[in-house]
Description:
Layout: H1 2-20, H2 32-107, H3 109-129, H4 140-149, H5 156-172, E1 176-184, E2 190-198, E3 202-205, E4 208-214, E5 220-224, H6 234-243, H7 260-267, H8 271-277, H9 279-314, H10 324-333, H11 340-359, H12 362-394, H13 399-456
Parallel strand pairs: 1-5
Antiparallel strand pairs: 1-2, 2-3, 3-4, 4-5
Helix pairs in contact: 3-4, 3-5, 9-12, 9-13, 10-11, 10-13, 11-13, 12-13
Main location: membrane
Protein name: MotA/TolQ/ExbB proton channel family protein
Keywords: Cell membrane, Coiled coil, Membrane, Protein transport, Signal, Transmembrane, Transmembrane helix, Transport
Amino acid sequence: MTMFKTMKSGILAAAAVIAATGGIASAQDISLDDILRQAREERRQAAQENREREQRFLAERNQQQARLNQVRGQVNAAEAESDRIEAEFRANDDRIRELQTELEAQQGEFGELFGAARSAAADLAAQLDGSVISAEYPGRSAILRKTAEAKTLPSVDELIFIYETHMEEMIGQSKVSKFNATVWNTKGESDTAEVTRIGPFVAFSGGEYYTMKDAENAVPRLTELKKQPNVKDATSNARSVASYSGDGYTAGTIDPTSGQLLDLYVDSPDLQERFNQGGLVGKVIAIVFAVGVVIGLLKLFTLFMTNSAVKGQVRRKSPSRGNPLGRVMMAYESNPNADAETLALKLDDAVLREIPKLERGLNLVKVFAAIAPLLGLLGTVVGMIITFQQITLFGTGDPKIMAGGISQALVTTVLGLIAAIPLLLLHAFASGFSKSVVQTLEEQAAGMIAERAESRS
């Protein structure tokens, strides 16, 4: 009975497998023979697939071996070709050396002559790159540079071109010329304009000075100066020369160094750039200076008006509350029956009440005058710290690296002194007016006390 159940379970399991693989018969309709045939059929199909897979593998292996042999043959052929080319290269190199030796032997003294010609062409090309005359005759330096870099002997035309270019440059240095050329403004935009050139010294158009500069990855070109010279009448002289016609002459401003002074002028910082070099400390000094000057001027004006009012009160007998002396005189008149000693105390008290009003704000100006150079010293220390840090990181090979810290150190010192000196002068003048008013009050008070004492006696 147990065996029968086991067989039945196996049959049901086989039927389930057949149903799962797409069989259409139910488990109750399948016999053991069907299952056996199905198993044999599956084994036969698997064997057939294995044979086909093996045959494909063997075929691909044979093809890969054939390709490998083909590649090896190509590599061997390439190595042989490389050896042949290398041998040919060595032979050509030896032949070139032989021909070079033969050429040098045949040239004789002419070799040194042609070497001098190449050197002259290179020197002249470098000179023409920075010459404003090249704006009138463009393309000369490119031809000369080609001659200087050529490996072959220069031709007669090239030698004549070197000579003619020298003569052209010499003649151009003695002329004032007007011509149309492509110019570049400070924004990098090009335009065609009439250019006036004074020898090799300066070139200008529309009153603006131009110079020959090396553009990035390009040939030199006539470029407007970033900063025009503020020398007296420089730009007006440029316009006069550009518009002048007829006999005689007119004044013109030139750069005798052929552009070097103009380049230095462009690189030199203006007042705003100098101030910006002071950094944060420089801005703080400027704020302290501005606040101190405003307070000092207001106080100076107030004391000047007060001093004038006191002097006017001296000439009048009737007191006024609008000035310190008038208020002291009112204190005198408010105590008509007091003796001299009591009156002296009353007047001293009135004078002492006026002194703080007169000296209010003076100490603040004095403090600002003392703070300004201290801030300048602080900026100097900060600038030197920056300089030493740059030296530690980059060494002392390039002075431009240290220029920023040194500029801050010196500029803040200058700013501190510039701020302190006017503030000290303002404090001195204001303090002088204050002391003058106090002295007048004390003199008038002493006079009133003496008058009272004299009337009592």
